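Q: Hi! First time doing this. I have a protein sequence and I read that you can turn it into a structure. Is that right? Here it is:
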Amino acid sequence: MTDLLLGIDIGTSSSKGVLTTPEGVLVATTVRPHQLSMPAPGWAEHDAEAIWWGDFTSIARELVQGGHGQVAAVCASGIGPAVLPVDAGGRALRPAILYGIDTRAMDEVAELTMRFGEAAILARGGTLLTSQAGGAKIAWIRRHEPDVWARTARFHMANSLIIERLTGEYVLDHQSASQMDPLYDMTTSSWAADWAAEVAPGLALPSLAWSDEVVGRVHAAGAVATGIPEGTPVIAGTIDAWAEALSAGVRDPGDTMLMYGTTMFIVEVAPAFRPDPAIWSTQGVFKDNPTYAAGLSASGGLTVWLKDVLGSDFDTLLGEATATPPGAEGLVVLPFFGMARSPIFDPSARGMLFGLTLSHTRGHIYRALLEGTAYEVRHNLEVMAGVGATPRRLVAVGGGTRSGLWSQVVTDVTGVAQIIPEVTVGASYGDAYLAGLGSGLVARHVRWNPPAQVLEPDSAAADRYGELYRVYRELYPATRNLAHAVARVQNATAAG
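A: Yes, that's right. Below is the predicted 3D structure, encoded as C-alpha cells:
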C-alpha cells in the first residue's frame, strides 16, 4: 500500500487537510470552515475543543478512511501565537486567545516592557512586546481570570494540543515558542526560565523541538479518535504562516513569503539573528534558520468590508477596480481598520480614505484598498532590507492571489517580482512536507512545489506608485494624534 503524508492546518476561519505522496503529489484535500469569536472589543478567540481538536479529528477521519493509502506520518500547524490554558487532564479551561488581532493584553505588554526593559527584551527575545506577545496573554489570564489560572497546569497552541492528544507528549516547536515573548530566549534557543518564572509562576513549559522532528507516536486513544494508525510518527509542526511559507519553498536566506488572506503575513528567512524593533525576529522551522516576520492587521478583510457595505459582489468590484488606473486617481488608503501591526505597532491607529473627490467610484475605492495594503507591504520589506535581509526571492501564496490584480499591485508597488507556486493549498501542504522530512520519506535537499507563474513589475505603474507611496508614508504621522482621539471615542462607546 502507498505511503502517504497527512498534513492538517487549523486556520483563523477554516481548517484544511491534505494527503500527499512523498514526492509532493496531492492525493486528497478537505476543508472545514469555522467561526472566529470576538466576544468583546479587541478580543479574538477560538473554541479549541470544537475547532482545534474537533476539526483535526474530523479531517483526519475523512482523509484516513478515504481508501487512498497508508498514512506513514502526520504533522499539524495552526494559528499563533495563541494561548489555550488547560488543566492537569489536558482539558481546555476557556477559549483560546488568538494572535496579534487580540489586543486585550496591552496593559500587560506595557508592564512587562517596563519590568524587563525594551533593550533587554529585544536583545534576548528578538521582538518588542506587542499585541502578538504570547507571554503577555498568559499574564492577562493570570490577572483577570484567577479561577482559570488556579486550575491551569499547561498552555497550548493548536499544534501542541494535537500532539498531546495524539501522543501524550507536551511539546512545542521552537518557532512557536519564540513568539511566546518574553518567555523564550533567542540567544540560547531555549525557554527564558527566569523571566517565565516571573510572568507565569508555576506553569509547566513544554519540551522544545524543531518543526521537522518526530515528537511521539500515535497512541491507542489518539488512533481511536482520529483513525490514524497507532504507532504513526507525529512531527512537531509549527504556526500556520511558517508552514505555509515552507509549502511554497521558502527555506533559504532571502526567501520571502507574502501570504494573501483576510490578513496578510510576511515571512523571510534571515541570514542571521539581528533583531529590529519594527519587525518580529523569530526562530524558523529548522535549526539555525532564523526568520523575520511582519503582519498586516487587515488586508483581504478590507475588500470583504467594502463588498458588504456596498451590497455588491467580488466579481463586479474586481472588474471595476481592474479598469481603474494604477494609483486610483490619487486616492490613498491607510489600511489600519482597527489597528496597525508591523512596522508601526499602534493599536489605536485607524483607517483612512484620503483624497476623495466626487469623481471617485467604488472601483477606485476597491483598488485603493488593495494599494494601501501594498504600501504597507513595501514599508515592511524596506525595514527588513534595512537590517540586511533584502528579499532575494518573493513567493505569493493564499486565496488573494487568485484574482491576479492584488498580487500584481503588490509587485508594482514594491518593484519586486513575485513567484506564484504550482500548489496553493497552503499550510497543510507544508505540514505534509514536514511529515515527510521528519519520517525520512522526504530527503532534506528535496524541494516540492515548483513555480507556476512569475509576476514582473510594470515600470509605468511603479513610477505612479512611488509618488503616492511618499504620501502614504506621511499620512500616518500627520494624523496619528487625531486617530488616537477617534480611537478613544470608539473604545468608550463600545465599553458603554
